Amino acid sequence: MTVVPRPAPDGRWRVTVKARIRGRSFARPLLPLAAAVLGRRARRAGAEALERAAVAWNAQVPALVRKDGERLSAELADALLGP
Fold it and tell me: Which of 4, 14, 8, 80 is closest to 47 using CA atoms?
């Protein structure tokens, strides 16, 4: 699988995802048909998942960037070693 992010002209990001499927299953000839039928739904689900990830990133990362390194590493250690 290859994922390539690129800035889009409108200031957002465009992400291209390519998957290569190999194998000798009896269902292999049906994969292009399934991809054609389910492709739009899969693209929509992927876009929604990326949008949710961006919202979570934008909500959490700016606050983390403003913290000094010592405080951030102490909080990280607490989170990793906590109860």
Answer: 14
Query: Dihedral angle at the C-alpha atoms of 20, 23, 28, 32, nearest 10 degrees?
Result: 10
**DSSP class of residue 12?**
S
Question: 26-81, pLDDT tens digit by residue?
Answer: 777 887 888 888 888 888 888 898 889 888 988 888 887 788 888 888 888 888 98
Among the listed residues 24, 14, 83, 16, the one whose alpha carbon sits nearest the alpha carbon of residue 54: 14
For residues 25 and 34, give the distance between their C-alpha atoms in angstroms, rounded to a whole number.
Answer: 14
Residue 65's identity, in one-letter code, is V
Distance CA 52, CA 48 (A): 6
Task: For residue 8, give Cα distances in angstroms to 11, 13, 20, 70, 77.
Answer: 6, 5, 25, 36, 37
